[in-house]
Amino acid sequence: xxxxxxxTGAAPSPPTDLEQRLAAAKAQRDAIAKSKAAREAEAAIxxxxxxxxxALLNEQAIEKFTTEIGEVGDKIGTVFTxxxxxxxxxxxxxxxxxxxxxxxxxxxAAMTLVRPCVVYPDLVSxxxxxxxxxxxxxxxxxxxxxxAGIRIEEARGK
Length: 158
What we know:
CATH class: Alpha Beta
Strand order of the largest sheet: 1-2-3
Number of helices: 7
Number of domains: 1
Number of strands: 3
Shape: elongated
Strand content: 5-15%
Radius of gyration: 31 Å
CATH topology: rbstp2171
Order of helices and strands: HHEEHHEHHH
CATH architecture: 2-Layer Sandwich
């Protein structure tokens, strides 16, 4: 026998309208929380998969161009972006001298130096990446300068 029945001798009263509404709201919130947790778990796994696949693509590209052109830091340089690695080759002396003769570093001058040196990704993808992440151009220009023999820290007076 339930405690309420034993004490009063009567059956417990049915839940009030407010109690029913409270129970319904809690049940709906619990369902939403479970759905959200499932979505977040799925998203976390999808993020891990995307990160691993991007890392694999980056490593494959670096390996390919290291084999074809030469070592990173000597013949090729890498700049990592949200979309993946951009690999540049060492600029030839004519291209580099033409860039130096401009006398000031503008985005147009930097692109004139960098674009012919890009070996990965393809140039259509590179252009799209530059529209999405224009700040990467400065790092790519630095990488080309390093490959050409400039020590960036010394050039900047550091």
